[in-house]
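Honest question from a wet-lab person: if I give you the sequences of every part of a complex, can you actually get the arrangement of the whole thing, not just the pieces? Trying it with mine:
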Amino acid sequence: MAVTTTKKRKSKLESAALYPLDWLEERSGLIGGVRYFLFRKVPGDTSWWHTLGSATLTAFLVQLITGVILAMYYKPDPNSAHASVVHITNDVWGGWLVRGMHRWGASVFIILLFMHMGRVFLFGAYKYPRELNWIVGVLLLATALFEGLTGYLLPFDQTAYWATVVAININGTAPFVGPFLASILRGGAEIGPDTLARFYSIHMLLVPGALIGLIGLHLYLIVRLGVTSPPWSKEAADRPPDPEPQAPPRSGLVQPAPRPAGVRKRPTE
Ligand code: HEM
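Yes, you can. This is the full assembly:
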């Protein structure tokens, strides 16, 4: 008798706890989406090399969180920018840690990005059908490097100032568009208040927004296409080859169709 009551109470508690999730799932399908994302099948021989993408993502999230905290105290004005950075480091509680994480984290992010890209290249994971994801990756790389460039000026000390002068001058030497590019980056004839405000806005609004959008697209394509096995994979070698691709209905159009289960590569690869 006591056992049945405990069971009943437990199931009541369970359904009360799950109610908000059921409510959300019924109206959005979000829970099913997350479950699909977390429990989707990946090749059995994925290895530590495949964690480099997630490590890059983690480094990016750390940059986002620490950047938001720094923006609460930073002042994008040539007269107070450097002082505000010194204030963050010396006076704000935990400021030295957050600033250190953001400063060193920027290098960690870029290093991981290159390592991830190297892994994708060496595994041949940029080949069909993942070419588009490689292109998205290249855009991610360029955008991430631009994020580093715009962030470097923000402490507004001698190193930041002169490094930015060099970077803008290099951009200025590009054929045809160079002078135009340099003037857009400077926001005038010389580096000054307008440059700092411009770099700040690009660094904390434009580029992070672009990165979030591109990462979203990158992850969508990873879930859609799956990840590749290592080139030495016995498992991949044993898989049956793809059937012959169907002729597209009209030139330039590809007919979308679900890929047969377990098939990842074309016979030519
Ligand atoms: C913010 C930067 C990036 C993030 C957060 C990111 C994240 C990821 C993650 C989580 C994966 C799946 C797991 C893995 O293979 O490691 C992945 C796969 C992939 N990434 Fe990236 N990535 C980034 C930049 C790049 C760059 C720069 C490239 C190339 C230029 C690239 C190309 C690819 C490709 C082609 C795949 C599919 C690999 C496969 O199927 O095995 N990614 N990425």
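Two things worth pointing out. The mean pLDDT is 90. Residues 45 and 235 are 7 Å apart (CA to CA).
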